[in-house]
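Q: For a teaching handout, I want to show students what a protein-ligand complex looks like in token form. Below are the inputs, and the small molecule is zinc ion. Please produce the holo structure.
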Amino acid sequence: MIYPVSFSGVTTNKPVKNNKSVNKTPVTDKQYIQREIKKQTPNKNQKLKGLLWAGLALAAGTAVAILSRGKIKARRADVLKDIPQELQVRFEKLKNLSGKDFIDNAYNEMVDYMGLKGIAPKEILINGNDGLMSITGGYNPMLNKITYSSGFVTKLTKDQQLTMLSHELKHCEQFTNMLRTEGLTVEKYVESTVDNYINNAIRTPYQSVHFSIAYSRAREAGTVKEFLAKMKNAWIQELAKEVRQNFAEVLKLSKFKADSPEARKAFEHLRANSEYEGLNIFGTGSDTYRNNPLEVEAYAFGDKIGTMFKKFLSV
Ligand SMILES: [Zn+2]
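A: Here is the structure, written as tokens, with zinc ion included.
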């Protein structure tokens, strides 16, 4: 669910500033001619010579420009051929946007592209500090909310932002598909998260102090089984209510038939969700975390979209 971006990867990716005033070398034909003319003495012959040279420079410059324009065009075509037309149209709309404007528009374009209109959250939330080593993002499958830490807006390049948006939207698709699957009830959906939560709470007691205290008391009293059953049941009831509210629109949609590929995948994902391992305090996931089928799919999709966008911007 959480998408960590390594901090070192972020800082090395700063866009290079194009500081034109520093570059005194003439960059256009006109500047080149002006410089050549300036060099000439008032001598008429030399002035003519200078003009001739300037003319030659202009002709050569034009020839080079035409050649490289052809080259650029070929390179552009070569890069674009791997990007689906539909995405190119969307990327074109995003190309010149920046900051929050880019993020909001990129989000809406991806929601639309993935067929998640009316399913995905209407907007993303920027909330909380970055992890110690990373910028994080997460999809909450109980609240249907996508949240990123503050550095998401300020420290990432546009292709990194699009990668993370696509990644969390893939999770949104995975979880909402579970809720759209015949035979996969809200209670079963919630149970997989509760199972995962309880397992993680037992494994990493420092992350859920209240639970751990109650758990060790039950252990001392020899009532662990009863305690866990009671906790689990209470959580399922509570969260099922939340899910029915937060996914009201999704639950109204027609369901995937139990024997369809979507449904089979949804049941696999449900199991994967119960086996999720949490992130460490640095905000980076373990191998087990990244190998979870939900993550494998989300990373692959996010990276694919981000890479295509980066290529698109490069030509
Ligand atoms: Zn994820």
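A: Two things your students might notice: The two ends are 33 Å apart (CA to CA). The chain has two domains: 5-9+83-314, 11-80.
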